[in-house]
Design goal:
Blueprint (H helix, E strand, L loop, with lengths): L5 E8 L2 H13 L2 E6 L2 E13 L6 E9 L4
Length: about 70
């Protein structure tokens, strides 16, 4: 029996290109690799939300990450 562990990650980015790539991956339903803070996370993008409350626009990206097999 195989049990896969799924983790939901919430990332924050101010990079317009990264946010755009995330939106494209979300709408196409494919996995994306996001690079945030020197680390990268690969998974299916579930949500991309823009936050314009500060001086610099930022995007909150929710990714469902599948853990690698042991």
């Amino acid at each position: 029996m195989e049990i896969s562990t799924m983790m939901m990650q919430t990332l924050e980015t101010t990079d317009v290109k990264e946010a755009r790539r995330s939106r494209i991956a979300q709408f196409s339903g494919r996995a994306a690799t996001l690079k945030v803070g020197g680390s990268s996370i690969t998974g299916v993008v579930r949500a991309v939300k823009e936050d314009t409350s500060g001086e610099t626009p930022r995007w909150i990206v929710t990714v469902i990450e599948k853990q690698p097999r042991a």
